[in-house]
Write a structure and sequence with these properties.
The chain contains three helices and seven strands. By secondary structure, it is an alpha+beta fold. Strand 1 and strand 2 form a beta hairpin. The N and C termini lie far apart (66 Å).
């Protein structure tokens, strides 16, 4: 109790500011996790949108047309192509993607997955 009596108003202000600063990383991390729920994988074939996949839900999705097959997996807010019947397999080798702006491309199939935050998507296109 003697220590509290010796503290002045400025000391309390410094303590409060330090406490606020110390909890800022937790707040930012929490908001980042919420933003992860808002990431959408936009699948395009020949530059035409064919599907939107939310990274918030674990799932598999298969695209098959004209003998071209791409199988997409979403797990723990990340996306990847797990199988494709193209020769080079670059899309499969790219691995997991999770950030807005990331892309996965299969050139032989003209298959593109572009990750965007929901608030970056222009629905007028």
């Amino acid at each position: 109790m003697k220590i509290l009596k010796k503290l002045k108003l400025g000391d309390f202000l410094i303590i409060v500011v330090l406490l606020i600063i110390s909890f800022t990383p937790f707040y930012m991390l929490h908001n980042q996790e919420k933003a992860d729920d808002q990431i959408i994988g936009i699948v395009k074939i020949n530059n035409r949108e064919v599907k939107r996949l939310s990274l918030a839900k674990d799932q598999k999705w298969r695209y098959q047309k004209n003998g071209r097959i791409n199988i997409v997996q979403i797990k723990k807010h990340k996306i990847r192509v797990i199988d494709a019947n193209c020769k080079d397999q670059v899309c499969v080798k790219e691995g997991w993607k999770s950030e807005s702006g990331d892309t996965i491309v299969c050139l032989p199939h003209k298959f593109l997955i572009e990750l965007k935050n929901k608030n970056q998507i222009d629905d007028n296109k």
